[in-house]
Design brief:
Serine Threonine Protein Phosphatase 5, Tetratricopeptide repeat; Alpha-Beta Plaits; Rossmann fold; 4 domains; 4-stranded antiparallel sheet; 16 strands; globular
């Protein structure tokens, strides 16, 4: 193959997507912390699925134009730090292909080199031993090899890129001591290698089929233009002898994925329930009818619904423009309700195990009419996705206060003054992040040794400001030890955020323990969030 065209590139993208999706649980398991939040594989899979979907629906015949669509899809669907960095790699990749219709080997080598440069620039403090190292060493070494071998074919280039990326991945524990201690390679880098390996197999004529179709299109959907609302199509199909072909769930999902988005498909014996948003409901129904007969059927025009809602919201009850609007991210109805008492206009559901995408932030902003918008991510793995919003909505005043925990977000929201200037608010909200201490109590999902602490699967763990400080089988002992490690004589307030799995008698004992042992005001919030038994804020 002398040049890479659009059709082959689409096959590569599909292979890369499937390879990543099939192995995402392995990537999740590479999590350094033994906590139930290993989501790098899930975040990268959802991100790349979104980009691939955009590319597959794109009819552009220029590989540069197609890569632009891929880049936009990745950016909109970017979740977590790994997903955002992945989107930036392919943003740079697209820039490197500017003006190219069919890519040569050198075009591709230049594009990945540019991808590495853009990814590094997107991160304020790049850390070696991560996905950044893998793309840098892989792209640099493959590029140098290409210059030394001008006759190199595209397949040979990707063989070299995959080889060098794997070498870089295996070296990540030597650059990041925490990886070496736990005995894993970097999860983000491993995800990138899976994509590149999928690319290479496609070039060699190998197809990777998806094994686990739980990355639903309704999670990794494409946002069409404002005019592209289409039809909400729902039906129940009875499978049987009337069908012309044998039903296969994965095949039907794949077919639906080419015709629409927001897909939900559930099978119960001989009944299949389908929900899909599509511009061509007739085509969907014709495809589905091959499997059997319709039991129920409903089609609604979403454009008409949107126009009705828009008219009602904008003509009948115009929303007055505010000076400020605040957006935050949290899990649990209790925390959602609490944040709504603190000047928060929009609460996005998410957090440790469900990182919202850049598009989730954009959707939230659509409903706000404010001069200045301030975002509180409340998780270190969500900050980059929130930051991407500023590059998309450059004409709006959007600020991100980089809160890394719910308790930091609460303190920042409390320090917001709707009557003050934006400059003063940002200064005050950022300042409070410096002295809020965060403790979290959860359980270990595997045996490991971390910073000299032996941890067993099922143990309760106390995590203080991102460091595991206690681990044993008694929940209250772990929580009390965590509180002791956080509180000093200068502290004045302890916030106890109670999770949905906590017992009332344990909560009562902890409240009594805090009141008896610490001269601090105690605030208790029933969060109803699922990940942590307790989240503790100290300031």
């Amino acid at each position: 193959m002398e040049n890479l065209n659009v059709n082959t590139f689409k096959l590569m993208l599909q292979n890369g997507t499937n390879n990543l999706n099939n192995n995402k649980e392995h990537i999740n398991a590479l999590n350094v912390f033994p906590v139930p939040d290993g989501d790098t594989g899930t975040n990268m899979s959802l991100t790349f699925s979104n980009g691939n979907k955009a590319a597959q629906l794109d009819n552009k015949q220029s590989i540069y134009e197609l890569s632009k669509g891929l880049s936009k899809g990745l950016l909109m669907g970017a979740r977590g730090n790994s997903g955002v960095i992945l989107s930036q790699i392919f943003r740079g990749f697209s820039q490197g292909l500017e003006g190219v219709d069919e890519a040569t080997t050198l075009d591709l080598a230049n594009a990945f080199l540019r991808g590495s440069e853009v990814a590094y620039k997107a991160v304020m403090k790049p850390v070696e031993g991560t996905i950044l190292t893998v793309i840098r060493l892989g792209a640099n070494n493959a590029h140098a090899y290409t210059l030394e071998h001008p006759e190199l074919s595209i397949v040979e280039y990707f063989e070299k890129l995959v080889e060098e990326s794997n070498i870089a991945l295996e070296g990540t524990p030597e650059l990041l001591p925490v990886l070496k201690e736990v005995g894993v390679v970097d999860s983000g880098g491993a995800g990138l290698v899976l994509i590149l390996e999928g690319f290479l197999k496609a070039l060699k004529g190998e197809t990777i089929d998806v094994q686990d179709e739980d990355v639903n299109i309704d999670q990794a959907h494409i946002s069409g233009g404002e005019d592209e609302y289409g039809y909400c199509t729902e039906f129940i199909l009875r499978l049987g002898s009337d069908g012309n072909i044998t039903f296969n769930e994965a095949t039907m999902k794949q077919a639906l994925g080419k015709l629409g988005n927001s897909i939900v498909l559930v099978q119960d014996e001989d009944l299949v329930k389908v929900h899909v948003h599509t511009l061509t409901p007739g085509v969907v129904l014709n495809m589905a009818q091959q499997y059997g007969e319709f039991v129920t059927l409903k089609i609604e025009n979403m454009q008409e619904q949107h126009d009705t809602i828009y008219t009602h919201n904008h003509d009948d009850a115009p929303v007055e423009k505010k000076k400020y609007a605040l957006i935050t991210v949290t899990a649990g109805e209790g925390l959602k309700s609490y944040f709504e008492t603190l000047h928060i206009d929009k609460v996005i559901s998410g957090g440790q195990t469900m990182n919202p995408s850049t598009e989730d932030f954009l959707e939230a902003i659509k409903d706000l009419n404010a001069e200045h918008i301030i975002i509180l991510p409340n998780n270190s793995n969500i900050i980059l996705a929130a930051e991407q919003v500023k590059s998309i909505l450059e004409d709006q005043s959007i600020s991100v206060v980089p809160s890394k925990s719910v308790v930091q977000g609460i303190s920042a929201a409390i320090n917001f003054n709707p009557e003050d200037t934006l400059e003063n608010n940002l200064e005050n909200m950022n300042a409070v992040l410096e002295y809020v201490k965060t403790g979290e109590v959860t359980y270990a999902i595997k045996d490991t040794q971390f910073e000299g602490l032996e941890i067993h699967e099922g143990d309760f763990m106390g995590i203080a400001n991102g460091k595991i400080v206690s681990s044993e089988t008694d929940l209250l002992n772990v929580t009390k030890a965590l509180i002791k490690s956080l509180v000093t004589e200068d502290d004045e307030l302890i916030t106890l955020i109670v999770g949905e799995d906590s017992k009332a008698e344990d909560q009562a004992e902890l409240e009594a323990y805090i009141e008896e042992n610490y001269d601090c005001e105690l605030e208790v919030i029933d969060s109803k969030q699922p990940i942590y038994y307790y989240v503790i804020g100290v300031e």
